[in-house]
Amino acid sequence: MSDPTQPQWYCIHTKPKCEHLAAAALSQFDEVETYCPRLRFQRSTPRGKVWFIEALFPSYFFARFVYAESYRAVRHAHNVIRIVDFGGKTVSIPDQVIADLRVEMLDQEVREIHQGVQVGDTVEVAEGPMRGLKGIVESIANGADRVRVLLEFLGRSNIIEVPASKVLSDRAVRDMMTTR
């Protein structure tokens, strides 16, 4: 049983896309420690490749505080919806879980994910005259600098070779976290 007079980690539910704002608001309190792991990655847009930053756990972050002393401040902070509970009972998160998460995030609050491609990945050409076309990586050429992509256009399948930096994988960003 944990000591209720000692700070514990809790999961905080926020308004969508406001995790970092709520965490920043709560970090202003000396008695509250926050941890809001986020991912930085590129995604293809009509303007080409654009960098995005998203929460590792959308609409959630972690806060460490003494529940009895800081409940009201946390619960009523800007952009906070609630402190996560189960059946009306608020449950703390073990320190080891947060420590393991920090290791997975390489001890960074914002971890940059590079979306390298692999043979068999579905990719989208992000720049150049073929921008927006999707295909399957057939092979990696020139030591990972260029890739051969099987695209279907003009009514038939064609293999094109493009710089690896000009394609984006359809693999989920969170799936790439294990690639260091």
UniProtKB/TrEMBL annotation:
Alphabetical list of Pfam families matching this protein: NusG (PF02357)
NusG-like N-terminal domain ranges (all copies): 6-105
Alphabetical list of InterPro entries matching this protein: NGN-like_dom, NGN_dom_sf, NusG-like, Ribosomal_uL24_CS, Translation_prot_SH3-like_sf
Single GO MF annotation: structural constituent of ribosome
Biological process according to GO: DNA-templated transcription elongation; transcription antitermination; translation
Keywords: Transcription, Transcription antitermination, Transcription regulation
Top-rank lineage group of the source organism: Bacteria
Keyword Transcription regulation: yes
GO cellular component assignments: cytosol; ribosome
Residue stretches spanning the membrane: none
Name used for this protein in its record: NusG-like N-terminal domain-containing protein
